[in-house]
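Backbone-to-sequence.
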């Protein structure tokens, strides 16, 4: 991040998220300015709630890039699902004491979201989040991060 971006971070974050429309529009999904502001405001809120500081917007961008290619998202719930996946991600980072690297955690979340959750955020933030947290706390293996067209490459 260069010096001017430090003083204009929200605008930079806004622009980075708007740029994801270049990829998502091929799936019929487009974020409007009000959607991006909602995503950014909810991101700030969840970071504050979790006692976290993030200096980059990369996690949110990766969530959007993954979600737009998932067969389980639609135009009506696109923004809400981005917001919920942000919440799940930061919750898991906090509850696992940052023991899972960012990209690995994203792959786990995306794999579980598509299968076995089949796009159910309730299953993901309930049963599957508990499995991830318990696996880390008990030094057990984490859920698989199998590759695939909708798994995201980081």
């Amino acid at each position: 991040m260069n010096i001017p971006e430090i003083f204009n971070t929200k605008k930079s974050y806004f622009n980075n998220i708007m740029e994801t429309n270049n990829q998502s529009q091929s799936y019929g999904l487009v974020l409007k300015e009000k959607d991006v502001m909602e995503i950014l405001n909810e991101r700030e809120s969840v970071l504050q709630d979790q006692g976290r500081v993030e200096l980059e917007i990369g996690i949110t961008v990766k969530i959007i890039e993954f979600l737009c290619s998932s067969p389980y998202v639609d135009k009506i719930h696109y923004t809400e699902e981005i917001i919920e996946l942000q919440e799940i991600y930061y919750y898991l980072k906090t509850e696992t004491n940052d023991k899972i690297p960012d990209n690995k955690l994203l792959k786990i979340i995306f794999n579980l979201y598509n299968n076995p959750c089949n796009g159910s955020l309730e299953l993901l933030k309930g049963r599957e989040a508990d499995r991830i947290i318990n696996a880390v706390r008990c030094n057990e293996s984490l859920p698989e991060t199998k590759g695939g067209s909708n798994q995201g490459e980081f």
